[in-house]
Design the sequence.
């Protein structure tokens, strides 16, 4: 494809500046997502996934800010847009659903009204039309009896239903990109699968690109064609989803794969513990020098502690950043 | 007394006062100002003169009924002005923070340091007596509690998921304030407003009593008390009935405010659901 990608992140650095300290929370992050494509960002909690997503929609706020690099939506740099132009993108061309379906809906407003507000805000519809469209939007996310449900308040709905409403709001204006940040983490397992399936089908039908963010590699690889693995503010590997399971090249990726329960394995049946990666993600102020994974890596050598690994290009557009990659 | 009873009794008293004010011309027996007739001067309460008459022979019942119009107009309108000012300042200060927050905080502290009745008195002294001056004086001097509550609520609501979500969905600041913040703080604002309305009715009475508010012969409850001052022993009904009207209206608003607090308080609400 020669046209500009839908969204392109180039060498993004996010600074954390709390007056005393000035550190990079995310650095050298690059990826692109084409129209209708599905891309995942995976990594343990605290790796910088959510703040990267906020940067994409121009919503980083003090003490965080974009320190370097560029984010382009359809070739136009987001940072160059006025506040009003950015608002016109948000919710309209780029939508986002969050982790917390319990708190992301306004408790004192009927859900139908919250959906309708999107049509009024971004599409200039009258409230009468918007209310009609809200019923259709609820029907699209397979909520039964939508013409009655629109009058419900969030507390009258189950967690799964609320997340459906969130998806209806996010997809109301038919966005080009849907960012889903841990969209099912707060839901129980059976509901999770339904919600993911729904989101994937709706986006596939409409050609909506997905940026899926999760700590769960299995989930991300299931939804997305390509996956970027993030560790301590950097992307350490980017691969097609199939390759990442068969042949994860980075020790951190391999660790994530190994910690997944396999169908029918002893761990999945609850008879043994999963192999977890020992240690924790370092805090931003304590990032180690060299490869940031080195304190937790079994293959680490001297060079890992002193030198940041260069990018190595693998086949099929994959890349890895490790001195001793597989 | 449980919360329901208190709100219901208070609400009934307030609705009664509003009803009397609205239908005063039909409820009154005589014209409250022009209905003077020296033949009937200083009649005590009776079947003909329910609340008695004053030295000029005016029917006190008719004057109390008409007084409801003035007292409630002052109470409701001035408190609405206070609520609008307080919410606007508190909400924007909490939401935007920075220098604007400092300015609003400074202003609020000044307002809290000066007793609002003294402040209103000073404004009345400058503007002169009359209904408009009363509305201005009482409407501009009692917004500091509302402002504080609105600011504090905004600070705690700002980090809620649905406010963040609204930003992500492309809502502008004004839309966030109106759809996400205001409806979620309206409970305490209404409570403060109801109690403040009682305060405004009292303040009107005090200012009019001092001759700075509504001037005789127009019947506000305060101006009636003021006129009745000298006859409190000889013709007590002149003070008792307007006094009772003030007492019942303010009591009603306080009961209603307290009752609403229990109904609308988000904490007690979440406890029950
Ligand atoms: N508002 C903030 N102020 C300071 N630090 C923050 C803020 N938001 C996130 N961080 C820090 O940035 C890092 C990345 O956070 P985040 O993007 O939320 O991680 P993830 O989504 O991958 O779990 C974490 O170390 C977190 O503590
Ligand atoms: S660079 Fe070294 S420390 Fe980092 S992942 Fe590779 S082997 Fe491990
Ligand atoms: Mg996160």
Sequence:
């Amino acid at each position: 494809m020669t046209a500009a990608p839908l969204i392109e992140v180039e060498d993004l650095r996010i600074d954390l500046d709390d007056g005393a300290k000035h550190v990079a929370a995310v650095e050298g992050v690059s990826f692109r997502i084409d129209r209708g494509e599905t891309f995942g960002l995976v990594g343990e909690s605290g790796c910088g996934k959510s703040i990267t997503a906020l940067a994409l929609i121009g919503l980083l706020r003090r003490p965080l800010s974009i320190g370097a690099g560029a984010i382009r939506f359809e070739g136009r740099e987001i940072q160059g847009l006025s506040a009003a132009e950015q608002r016109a993108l948000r919710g309209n061309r780029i939508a986002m659903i969050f982790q917390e379906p319990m708190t992301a809906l306004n408790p004192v407003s009927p859900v139908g009204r919250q959906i309708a507000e999107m049509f009024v805000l971004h599409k200039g519809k009258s409230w009468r039309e918007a209310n009609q469209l809200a019923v259709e939007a609820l029907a699209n996310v397979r909520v039964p009896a939508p013409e009655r449900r629109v009058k419900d308040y969030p507390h009258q709905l189950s967690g799964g239903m609320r997340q459906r409403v969130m998806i209806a709001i996010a997809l109301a204006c038919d966005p080009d990109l849907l960012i889903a940040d841990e969209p099912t983490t707060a839901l129980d397992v059976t509901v999770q699968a339904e919600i993911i399936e729904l989101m994937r089908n709706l986006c596939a039908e409409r050609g909506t690109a997905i940026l899926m963010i999760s700590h769960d590699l299995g989930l991300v690889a299931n939804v997305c064609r390509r996956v970027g693995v993030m560790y301590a503010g950097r992307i350490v590997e980017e691969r097609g989803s199939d390759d990442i399971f068969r042949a994860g090249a980075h020790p951190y990726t391999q660790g994530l794969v190994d910690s997944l329960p396999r169908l029918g394995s002893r761990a999945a049946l609850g008879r043994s513990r999963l192999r977890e990666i020992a240690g924790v993600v370092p805090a931003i102020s304590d990032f180690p020098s060299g490869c940031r994974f080195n304190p937790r890596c079994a293959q680490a050598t001297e060079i890992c502690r002193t030198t940041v690994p260069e990018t190595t290009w693998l086949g099929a557009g994959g890349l890895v950043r490790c001195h001793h990659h597989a | 007394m449980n919360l329901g009873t208190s709100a219901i009794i208070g609400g009934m008293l307030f609705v009664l006062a509003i009803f009397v004010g609205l239908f005063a011309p039909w409820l009154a027996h005589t014209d409250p100002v022009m209905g003077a007739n020296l033949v009937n001067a200083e009649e005590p309460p009776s079947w003909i003169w329910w609340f008695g008459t004053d030295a000029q022979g005016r029917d006190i019942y008719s004057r109390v009924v008409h007084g409801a119009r003035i007292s409630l107009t002052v109470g409701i309108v001035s408190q609405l002005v206070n609520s609008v000012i307080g919410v606007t300042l508190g909400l924007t200060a909490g939401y935007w923070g920075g220098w604007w927050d400092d300015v609003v905080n400074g202003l609020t502290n000044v307002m809290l340091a000066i007793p609002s009745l003294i402040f209103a008195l000073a404004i009345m002294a400058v503007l002169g007596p009359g209904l408009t001056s009363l509305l201005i004086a009482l409407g501009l001097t009692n917004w500091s509690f509302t402002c504080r509550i609105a600011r504090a609520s905004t600070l705690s609501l700002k980090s809620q998921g649905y406010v963040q979500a609204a930003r992500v969905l492309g809502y502008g600041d004004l839309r966030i304030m109106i759809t996400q913040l205001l409806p979620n703080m309206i409970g305490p604002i209404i409570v403060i407003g109801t109690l403040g309305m009682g305060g405004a009715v009292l303040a009107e009475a005090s200012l009019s009593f001092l001759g700075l508010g509504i001037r005789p012969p127009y019947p506000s409850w305060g101006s009636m008390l003021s006129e009745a001052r000298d006859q409190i022993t000889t013709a007590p009904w002149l003070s008792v009935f307007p006094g009772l009207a003030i007492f019942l209206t303010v009591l009603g608003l306080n009961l209603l405010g307290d009752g609403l607090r229990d109904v609308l308080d988000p904490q007690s609400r979440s406890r029950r659901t």
